[in-house]
Amino acid sequence: MLRLIARRVVTARAGGCREGRVGFSSTASWRGRLQGRIALITGGASGLGKATAHEYIKEGAAVILADIDSRLGPQAAEELGPQAQFVPCDVTIEQAVADAVDFTVTCHGRLDIMYSSAGIVGQLDKSDISQLDLDQFDRVMNVNVRGTLAGIKHAARVMGPVGSGSIICTASISGLMGGLGTHPYAISKFSVVGIVKSAASELCRRGIRLNCISPFAIPTPLVVHQFSEIYKGLERERIIEIIDSLGVLKGAKCEEIDVAKAAVYLASDDAKYVTGHNLVVDGGFTTFKHLNLPMPAEVV
């Protein structure tokens, strides 16, 4: 049975936080794994960030969606319900990241979970490193690496005095093996894994856990757009079929929910002794590579 209760809900506004009395709560004793926790997700307006926000809320958290997209952001927050709110944030601007963190603390009193999910792919038409556009390289690194590092920095700033917190970053299988992405994207994701290893060695002494997730290819809006640039004119449904066919684990495909549930695990007390870890969600894709041996009958 559900009963209507008064609950403190804050909504992002230009002038600060606005409180309301809305929402339902179950009379049952069930508590989510993130019950009462406060999460900030960059890149939260769509894709993996939005999917993770949905799972966080299901597990009892309040979520702030920080995103550069001021059109999709409020729509996503509205869709996710009263436990979600949106703040505009360009992760390439450190002050914007700091402001999003400070807004969270001002409205909710603390920050328990920071998930740096904002990222871009960059141009896809050039794979020759001798022709690499360094301006485009800098653009990808600014979002994927500098933006991630800014999130870690400012989350640690407010989590440190409390002595607890979970920071999660989005890496990629492109940061585990060469040849799976463009040079700027792959290099940026190799860097994210390195940042996590380096910073976790310090943050563990403050009680802060820092991990990352390396997903397989998933038909998020970003990835579908990326593939549409390769397969020009192909229908969206066919592109999704191509992406879903790339895996090696029989009977399953990698979906947004898989990464979102991994992010729930890393944010929860189930992972209380996990830090500095790269959780690979790829169905075994990066665990092996077959030797192209000729068949015995083919050997003369």
Automatic annotation (TrEMBL):
By its UniProt entry, which Gene3D superfamilies does this protein fall under?
Answer: NAD(P)-binding Rossmann-like Domain
The entry sums up its family as follows: Belongs to the short-chain dehydrogenases/reductases (SDR) family.
Q: Cite the PANTHER family for this sequence.
A: 3-OXOACYL-(ACYL-CARRIER-PROTEIN) REDUCTASE (AFU_ORTHOLOGUE AFUA_6G11210), ALCOHOL DEHYDROGENASE-LIKE PROTEIN
Q: What is this protein called?
A: Short-chain dehydrogenase reductase 3c isoform X2
Pfam families attached to this UniProt entry: adh_short_C2
Question: Gene of origin?
Answer: LOC103708060
**InterPro entries annotated for this entry?**
NAD(P)-bd_dom_sf, Sc_DH/Rdtase_CS, SDR_fam
Q: Which organism is it from?
A: Phoenix dactylifera (Date palm)
- Gene Ontology molecular function: oxidoreductase activity
Q: Which UniProt keywords apply?
A: Oxidoreductase
